[in-house]
Amino acid sequence: MSRTGKTLMDMYAAMRERFAHQRWWPGETQLEICVGAILTQNTNWTNVEKAIANLKAAGRLSLPALAKIGHDELAGLIRPAGYFNVKAKRLKNFITHVWRQVGDDLPAFLDRSAGELREELLGINGVGRETADSIVLYAAGKLSFVVDAYTARIMLRHGLLCPEDDYEAIKEFFESNLADDLDLWNDYHAQLVAVGKNYCKPRPACDGCPLEKFPHDIRAGLMD
Ligand code: SF4
Prior knowledge:
Number of domains: 2
Number of helices: 12
Oligomer: single chain
Bound molecules: iron/sulfur cluster
Number of strands: 0
Structural class: mainly alpha
Strand content: under 5%
């Protein structure tokens, strides 16, 4: 294991000791995970849960139902997730894409290599890299590290990344330094989200953070 890999694993151990295994993704089915990954952009998970609860209550949380639903009804149901008109279009794009390929058989759609599935997802209008990687990792159960703003901020402040590193560079950094371990990749991202939400905010709260003992410079990342 590289020195950087060891540092990453030491950081993971510290986060996991504090937060315990996060058991992500907080969705019950592959479809629910895909829907959640699309709706969670620019909002918190509580709002996504409300939107998903609305879809369930209306009997719309299935591929056939989502394939048939009209824009206005869908936008109304997912309203709690914010940006509901944009997200209704994105969700519909995803559902239509899957429906045309495999009908109701989402597992068949997800059953391909991580790289192939990621490319397929990125070809759908409105599916960005974080969403695609979340679907590959958490819905399909395949190795694709998920990067978000928390990941970039924490790693930048700990001197493990450069400000110019983009999404793909950060993803490659983790994927090349961590063992190919699905459970590790799954929970590593979840632990970084927990640190980001609770401590590593734009104004960091390093006192008591599980990563406090690792070298860090809070001036890095203050541009957020
Ligand atoms: S809050 Fe401080 S110690 Fe915690 S991850 Fe951010 S920079 Fe590191």
